[in-house]
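Researcher: Going back to the complex we discussed earlier. I've cleaned up the inputs and rechecked each line, so this should be the final set. Can you rerun the prediction on the complete assembly and write out the structure?
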Amino acid sequence: MTLDIALRDPTTDWKVLIIDDDEEVHTVTRLVLSTYNYAGKGLDLMHAYSAKEALEVLQSDPDIAVALVDCVMETDRAGLDLVREIREVQNNHKIRLVLRTGQPGYAPEEQVIKEYDINDYKDKTELTNTNLKTLMYTNLRAYKDIATLDLHRQGLEIIINAMGNLFHINSFPEFASAILNQLVTLLGLGKDAAFVKIEGFAAESQKGGLKLLAGTGDYQGMINKEINEFLSEDVINEIRDAASRKENIVFEDHLVVYFASQEQQETILYINNFNALDELDKHLINTFCTNLTIAYELNAKRQ
Amino acid sequence: MSDDDEFLFDDDDDSSGGSDAFEDALAIENKPWRLLIVDDEEEVHAVTKLVLSNYEFAGRKLEFVNAFTARQAIQILDEDQDFAVAIIDCVMETDHAGLDLIQYIRDTLQNKIMRLVLRTGQPGQAPEDSVISRFDINDYKDKTELTAIKLKTLMYAVLRSYRDISALDINRKGLELIIETTAKLYESRNLNQFASAILLQLTAILGLGKDAAYVKVVKGFAATEDHGDYLLLAGTGEYESLINQDIRGQIPVDICHDLDEACSVKHNLYFKDHLIAYFRTPQGSEHLLFIYNYSKLSELDKNLVQVFCSNVSIAFETLSFEGEKE
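Model: Rerun complete. Updated structure for the full complex:
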């Protein structure tokens, strides 16, 4: 399943596809929803004038949150066939589909809502301004719930894969580097790599100083150097703070993870440049950190 | 145990032992969707129930639970949050009792899965525009709008999103369960322990989102291919007593046939009411998990089983047990 950038990137609007063969319906819908916003984002309205065109749009753009689907277009049941195609052939169970019909005779409400996997049924006459907005709230809310859970699910899959790899690793620097890469992947999940440049490093305490074990991005070239040589004082203080409190510290756009192995070897992971952490990020990071300690200790015990 | 014997040896007449469990499982599969109606008017409860009495979605009917005040609804929910949908009146003990209840469910109980519909008789007290944007509700209905057809449409709309959301939530729980129990796998000292750990893990995963009665009917075994026969490493239910025995002659022929099939195609097989997971270790031994689960697996379920299997395979690669080297 594709990742949804709109869910986590505050600059991306919710994508809504209007499918109708009547130009006026597009105009009115656009007018009513022009100032609408949900969860701090507006709508990116997209237009298709036939079921065929809609399928093409959906094929190339799988993150559309809601589609308003007219029933009668190329054929009397073009909209209904489209719904079936989206769910069963494109296998898209995330998008919320609302059937909007001008001729209820062709698609009786009671039968259609029962037989087709749609999320609402509206007679075009019912769609006043308020109703259309309510419709957007209910569907975007459901979409957001679904997309969030889906993202969470993908994050957990990354953790499971990562854990499997952690059990294989024999050297500590390799272990730290694997964790670092996994954390960067986790935090970047569902975010556009072009806009978000997440990077970080792992450092190990040695005789009072901290030496870089592994790094990504700009930190990659600093391996084996003392952190005092290239980090700003603010960052060094944050790291010292985490090490003396022996716990993780989460800031708005960066994060310090403290972690000690059984032999009392202390490691710090520092990751920056992500957007503000949401509940999901925090949950995933916690799950990950708890388990990597277990993995490392089991690994050490076996050897 | 006599029940086991019947199942194992009595192929023609398995109507006694086997079908009871099957009926239990069927009853669990068709468990109704639970609907909480919160309204201070007795008549609203009666009409809702009347309109929806024959309603069915995905082969499951509705079970109605009634609350006449927000306070009573809170008492019910504090005990039991297993509702798909709550239809909530706005004005009850106070003008905004329904809105307070919504906040209680979302913020205090932290329940984001239950679908909430606000139904109001006095839209003046809770204007649609501001309520729908401010409160985490899944629909807003004026009581006058709710004809029989509209009420059914509403149920389809909310139950569909509940179905989609709870499927993903169960999948999430499955993944968390895999994460939590993975360390256990690595602590196994021998192949038998490892086999019971993975059997338990898969049983728990398949039972997620179902109640305890369901989990009881899920049973299975882990076996290793042994010169054309299968040596049972761990088992639940009637298979428990077969540990460390060759089972080809002791289990039904069709199950054996499915095991052979999995070994020949070398991947997992999914059937209507059971599945076989296939593992091959780097040392070349072949292991199988067989689970009866009585319900068809969705794509999401299969995806979960797949994640489980690759996790187990990695564990197999990392650990090597006595008697495994050959």
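Model: Worth noting: The longest strand of chain B covers residues 219-226.
Researcher: Good, that matches what I expected from the previous run.
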